[in-house]
Amino acid sequence: MGIKRITTSVALLLLMFSAAQAQEIKTDSVGNNTESRNGQADSLQILSAELAQIKSQLSSEEKERQYEKIWRRRKYWKIGLANPSIERIDGEPMTWKTDFSVFIQSGKTTYFHRKPIGGVLKFGFDFGMSLNYAKLKLDNAALSGSSSSTPGTIPGSNPGGFDDIVIDDPNGSALALMGVNLGMHKIEYDVHIGPNISVNPWNHLIVSAYFHARPTAAGIVENDKFSYGFGCAMSAGVSVSYKLISVGVEGLWSTIKYKQPSFDEDDDDGSEENGGIFNTKDFKLKQKGPRFYIALRF
Asked: Is the pTM of the predicted complex or chain greater than 0.90?
C-alpha cells in the first residue's frame, strides 16, 4: 500500500512537470511568432516610407522638368506697328501724325528665381534693343506770322512741316526749290531695360506685364535737312504667350531735344550756338502713342 502511494505521487509529479514544460514551450513559441510578426510589420513600414520618398522625389523631378519646359523661352524677337503722335513743346505749337510706323526688337528675359512662386509666378527683368521707323506728316501748325506764302502752313505744299521748326524760310531748301518733297522720316535706335512680372495660369500660357526705360538716339530727315537727338523714352505693356508665339500691346512716350546743323553763312537767329559757317538750331519734340506687335520666343 505504501509503495502504491509513492508510485502514484511520483507519477503525478512527472505529469505536472511535463505539463509545465509543454506550457513553457508553447509560450515561447507564441512569443517568437509575435516577434516575427512585429518584425515583418516594421519592415513593411520602412519599405512603404522609402517608396513614398522615392515617389515624392520623382514627382518633384517631374515638376522641375515641367517648369523648365514652360519657362525656358526667354529670348524674343518682336515686329510691330506703332501710331505715335508728335508735338513741339518749346515753341509755336505744331503736331505731326503718323503715315506709317514699324519697329523691330530683340531681347531676353532673365528671371530672379528658378522655381515659380506658387508654381505660377515669376519676377525678372528684360534687356534688349530695337530699331524704329516712322513716316510723319504735319497735322496742325499755328505759327505766328504765318501767311499763304509759307509752304509749311499750307496743306500739301510742305506736308512735313519740319522746316518751320528750324528754318525761318522753308523756301530756302534746295530740294524745295526743285519742287521735290521727300517727306519727313524719323528713325530711332534704343536700348530697353526694366522689370517684368509673368504669370502661368494654365498649361504653356504665360501672361506678362513690364515697364521699360529706353535710352534713345533719334534722327529726323526732311528733304536735305537732318536733325539728331538723344533722350530716354519709357514704355509699359502686356503680352500673352503660348509656347513659341506671343502677341502684345504697349504704350511709349518720350521727350527728346534735337539739334539741326546747317552750313548757311546767312542763317543767324541770335543764338550763341549760331554764327559763322556752321550753325545749330535746337528744338524739343514730345512723342506718345500705342504699339502693337507679334513676337517669337526662343
From this structure: no
